[in-house]
Structure formats: structure tokens, C-alpha cells
Amino acid sequence: MNKALDLNTQNIEDFVTDDEIAGLQSEVSRCHKDLEEGEGRGAEFLGWLHLPSVTKSEELTRIQKSADWIRDNCEVFVSIGIGGSYLGAKAALNFAGSDVSKSFSPSGGDSPHILFSGQNISSDSLHDLLESLENKKFCLNVISKSGTTTEPAIAFRFLKQFMEKKFGSEEARKRIFVTTDPDKGALRQLTEEEGYPCFEIPGNVGGRYSVLTPVGLLAMAVAGMDIAEVIAGARDCEQSVTQNSSLDQNLAYRFAVIRNLLYQKGKTIELMAAFHPALQTMVEWWRQLAGESEGKEGKGIFPATAEYTADLHSLGQWVQEGNRIIFETFLRVATSNHPLEVPESPDDRDGLNFLAGKTLDEINEKAWQGTALAHLEGGVPNMTLTVKDRSAHTLGYLFYFFQRAVAMTGYLMNVNPFDQPGVEFYKTNMFRLLNKPGYGKEK
Ligand code: PA5
């Protein structure tokens, strides 16, 4: 496989015709123009669109310098954030590492152990984190565009106080890295008062489109990943998608169109299933990107995720024979970093000698093909996205591919893919129940 990413749509042909796809070309071209010319909904948040091409090498050098300092001075790096200020970095580290248990240290023993905090309101998890940091040299990266999100703000208050007590305020100021809006928010103000090293999330880049800013790049660099290659991969995708909006050539738009057509035909759930453990968090990142971008105004595909083959032994039953309102997208990687062959066994007591000499990649490929066919026969249209490898370049390509596909899907559905007004409702109720000033009395 030469190209970074391939889209196989063979298994949707019984559900969506070529004519139907081609029939949406003029609509896609109009949405493409809206994106490029900033004339569509949410145009004030299009900073991500050409971000890979405008990212300056000086910015990457600055991130790398901080990462080098962190690598030299910390055993543990705690990234504090939620939603778009968290999932991209986690997906990247998982992509580079071999599985979730090792995902936070892709370059091995030299990298600090990377932990995440601020994604829940749990005493136990915060307690356990503080306890694990007791005898460790650690750094914090607090990431919040708004600077006011409750979950990471609570975690940061605890961790900041813990750090100041352990290292003293002056040393803490060197160990706290802030990633926030360039101009506004409580975190911006605190950063200016304390003089913390700070990275900016461009004002016109929303949370879930921010993985290719310091939001994602600092943790990747701390983990030893080549962030210039990540940006180069994203730039390759950006350029190819920008140059040509034809549905025969532009895979991101073709993917978006097929998702929309399936949705119009009553397939309201998309299950994105990762066929490699290193893609497990990538599909979670995608779930947030798609869910927050498309689910509004009574519309939107419900994005669900699974890890295959593990979930074939749980959700697989539902997918094969449950309510026929679902389609699937499989996410695969073409080659493993370390291909293993099944060994021969002299007595074959486990009956597996028919697999001896085959690589696990070959067996996994057959599992994918068998699943795709079975689910198709069960009435579940499915597509497959295959990435070439797990390089930094491919990672950047994939992040950008999904961003562009989701933005196009949103425009085709005529929603604003860059806002998330629905997220405020739970916050308002929670603040009212907690008697936050300005939110009225508990009812
Ligand atoms: O995509 C989004 O905008 C959200 O998911 C945000 O990233 C999330 O709510 C965190 O927001 P903030 O970075 O302001 O703390």
C-alpha cells in the first residue's frame, strides 16, 4: 500500500448506488467552496482548515524545546483536559504505542510516563493520581481553550496545590505548562499572573479540531514522537483534499457523502470499529469529533465505537442480528510494526496447526474480511478505512482526513459542525444545583 489511507466501499453497493453518490457532487462542491471561502456555518472556527500548511517550524521548535525539558526533568507528565483538550493527544499516543497499557510511552523507557486527568469528577481517581505522584518528579500540562471547564479546573486546582507543596511555588512555575486561548479566559489570566510557560490554541480553532495545535503536539513530543512528521502528514492530506473536491478523487468527501446517504436511508448509527488495539483511542477521538459536530437540531448519525475482534464477542451479536439501523466503518492498519507468525506445535493439541506459519496480520485480515461479509449479509452496510502504517506521518494524515470528512458531513446536513450548544445544558443545571453565583437557587 503506497498511499497513507485507503477507503474501501465495496460493501455499501447494495445500499447506495454510484448514481446517488454522483448526485451529491454539486452539493459537495458548494460545501467545499463554503469551507474554502469561509461562507458556511461556523466560519469563525475554520482556523483548523489550513492549519497544517501555516504551522511554522519555529512553533514546532518551541514545543519540542519544552518537551525536551520535560523529558529531562520529569518522570511523569500529567495532561489535564477534557473533550477536544484531551482525546487527540491520547489517540496519538495510543496510535504510536502498541496497546493501551503501553500507549503513553511510545518511545520506550526514556519518555516520561504520561497520565491524563480532568475527565471526570472522581475523588478516587484524583486521590490515586496524587498518591502515585508522591515520590515522582512530575510536570503538568493544563489544557483548556475556555479556561473555565469544571472537570479540568478542579483537577488542576488539586494538582497545582500538590505541586506547590512538593516543589515550592517557584519551581512549580517551571513545571506547569498551560495551553489555552491567546486572549481570554481564567486560565489565560492566571498564566499571565504566574508567568507559566504557555502555548496558544488559536482563537479560530475549536476544541475537537485542535489536535494539530499544541493541545495535541506537546504530549506527542514529550512521548518522543516526531511532531514535524505529524504536521507533514496532515499537510499532505490537507493539500490533496483542498485541490480536488471530485468524489472520485477526494476520499474524505466520498466518505462523508456515503455516511450521509446511509443516514438518509435510516442507518442512523455508525459503529466505527478498530481492528487494531492502537486504533482504539483514535475511534474514541473520532466519536467525539463526529458526535459534537453533527448531533444537533434534531439531526446526526449516532457515532458508536468498538474494538474488534474483542467486541465481536459482545456487540457482534447486536450488529449481526439486531435493529437494522446501523452501518459500520472499520478502521485498520495495513501492516504491523512487529509481525509475528503462529508457531508450529508438535502435538497440535490445541488444533491450531492449520494456522502455523501464518502471520497474525494475515489472520486479522481474514477476521476483518469475514466480519465485513457476515455483517453485510446481516443487513449492515460497511466501509473500511485502512491506514498504511502507524508512522507519525500517517497519524497526521488520518487526523486531518477525519476533520475534513466530518466538516463536510455537517455542511451536507446543514448544521454548524463547529459549535456544541447542547453541551451547556448539563453544566447550567449542575451549576444551579451547586449554587454557582449567577446560576440561581437550587430548585
Ligand atoms: O470540542 C470542543 O469544543 C469541546 O469538546 C471542548 O474541547 C471541551 O469541552 C473542553 O473545552 P475547553 O478546552 O474549553 O476546556
What are the SSEs and their pairings?
Blueprint: E1 5-8, H1 18-23, H2 25-37, H3 51-54, H4 57-73, E2 76-80, H5 87-96, E3 113-117, H6 123-133, E4 138-144, H7 150-167, H8 169-175, E5 176-180, H9 186-194, E6 198-200, H10 214-222, H11 227-243, H12 251-264, E7 269-274, H13 280-294, E8 302-307, H14 315-321, E9 326-333, H15 360-377, E10 382-387, H16 392-412, H17 424-433
Parallel strand pairs: 2-3, 2-4, 4-5, 5-6, 7-8, 7-9, 9-10
Antiparallel strand pairs: 1-10
Helix pairs in contact: 2-16, 4-10, 5-10, 5-13, 7-8, 11-16, 12-16, 13-16
The structure holds 5-phosphoarabinonic acid.
Please give a structural write-up.
- It is built from 17 helices and ten strands.
- By secondary structure, it is of the alpha/beta class.
- It folds into two domains: 5-40 and 230-420, Glucose-6-phosphate isomerase like protein, domain 1 (Rossmann fold); 51-225, 3-Layer(aba) Sandwich (Rossmann fold), CATH 3.40.50.10490.
- α2 (25-37) packs across α16 and α7 packs across α8 (169-175).
- 45% of the residues are buried.
- The chain binds 5-phosphoarabinonic acid (PA5).
- 5-phosphoarabinonic acid (PA5) is lined by residues 82-85, 144-146, 149, 152, 206-208, 292, 420.
